[in-house]
Amino acid sequence: MSGHDFDLVVIGAGSGGVRAARIAAGYGARVLIAEEFRVGGTCVVRGCVPKKLYVYASRFADDFADAAGFGWRLPAPPTFDWPSLVAAKEREITRLSGLYAANLEKAGVELVDSRAVVLGPQEILLVKQNRRVRARHILVATGGAPQRAPLVPGIEHAITSNEVFDMPTLPEAMLIVGGGYIAIEFASLLARLGVRVTVSMRADKPLRGFDDDLREGVANALTRAGVDLRCGVMPARLEKTAGGLLATLSDASALDVGAAMFATGRTPATAGLGLEGAGVALDRHGAVIVDSFSRTNVGSIYAVGDVTNRVNLTPVAIREGHAFADTVFGGKSVSVDHADIATAVFTTPELGTVGIGEEAAIAEYGDVDVYKTGFRPMRATLSGRDDRVMMKIVVDAASDRVVGVHILGEGAGEMAQLIGVAMKMRATKADFDATMAVHPTAAEELVTMRAPTTRHRRKG
């Protein structure tokens, strides 16, 4: 500790930074963590936690509509109160943020409410306190921030996914720009809360990078929910009006909306951190360049989570933060395997996926077998809802190893988590076939698909 105030200074008290700080402190390190906004980061405060709460709220619309098919009679049409949901969300994320802070205190971590700037390889300025501290190691865990792109006239009138959670009123109509999971999740949930949603995206289908069949299924589900999908169309201009905004799109159509949200991607939050002055290499997107152990090119500085732009998911940031602390302070050598990460998109119905899609598998393996099924879920047989479940298993034909599983339907995220265990253990299609089904469930289809629907083979 000679010449240093702390063994570790962490910049950013999101999921990855908090985990790293706690584990390092558990190994006996003296740790300071600096956070300029609220403890908990994107996930807890303005990301996955409040988003999932809003998704739950939106699904009651379907539940109420389906109830009659099961013999329930509601006394009057149900009504929804947006301010009540916002207030309930705020209470919950305040509780969670407090738990994060309390756990840091229990671990012996000093939590400082301040922006932090890197002054050098081992020196930090805590801006709010005008306090300089020296650390043997610095961990950057500042996450990402919404980007406002494309830069169209009037974009200053739009909001991002940071502000959408706290809109003072729920607009009657809303334009959402973007085709990624944030845009699509909000389109799905806001439509169920009664908003007339139009989605404008550059691509021909939502969710670029996901399996094509899933993308098609999500697009169809959004359309059934009343979402107006404008694929290949982007906003050209936003103008403030007495009632909200007039949005002119690139196809010359115009929309009167109460609000517009840009969800066209997120960028690593490295601006103004002083990293370049300290010699830390960034890529062209501003992400911190790190190796498999989260080390930068400066020996004392590390980075984890979305700020590195590797795999931008909360559990990944947590695992990276834990691995960093184990390696640097625990005397271990732990790197994170970023392959076969299970993930979910919380549309309704939701999407769960592990591994790679059909086209990517063909490119990587050549000989690929695809097993696919689609069916009406059991609940819809009485509710009368026009829902479909889609499941798909992608197999490397040479080894019989399952390299991708893709699910669209109720509980898809929960299924993907469990399938992720099997795929991490390199399960084969024969392993799936040997597994007994749980009946009646939707998930049983994953172990009862016997014949490939498609076989891809290398030509020649």
Concise account of the structure shown:
The chain is of the alpha/beta class and 460 residues long. The protein has three domains: 6-144 and 267-329, FAD/NAD(P)-binding domain; 155-264, FAD/NAD(P)-binding domain (3-Layer(bba) Sandwich), CATH 3.50.50; 343-456, FAD/NAD-linked reductase, C-terminal dimerisation domain (Enolase-like, domain 1), CATH 3.30.390.30. The protein has helices at 15-26, 41-46, 48-67, 82-106, 181-192, 212-224, 314-329, 358-365, 378-383, 412-424, 429-433, and strands spanning 6-11, 31-35, 110-113, 116-120, 123-126, 131-140, 144-146, 173-177, 196-201, 228-231, 235-241, 244-249, 254-257, 259-262, 266-268, 301-303, 343-345, 351-355, 368-375, 389-396, 401-408, 454-456.
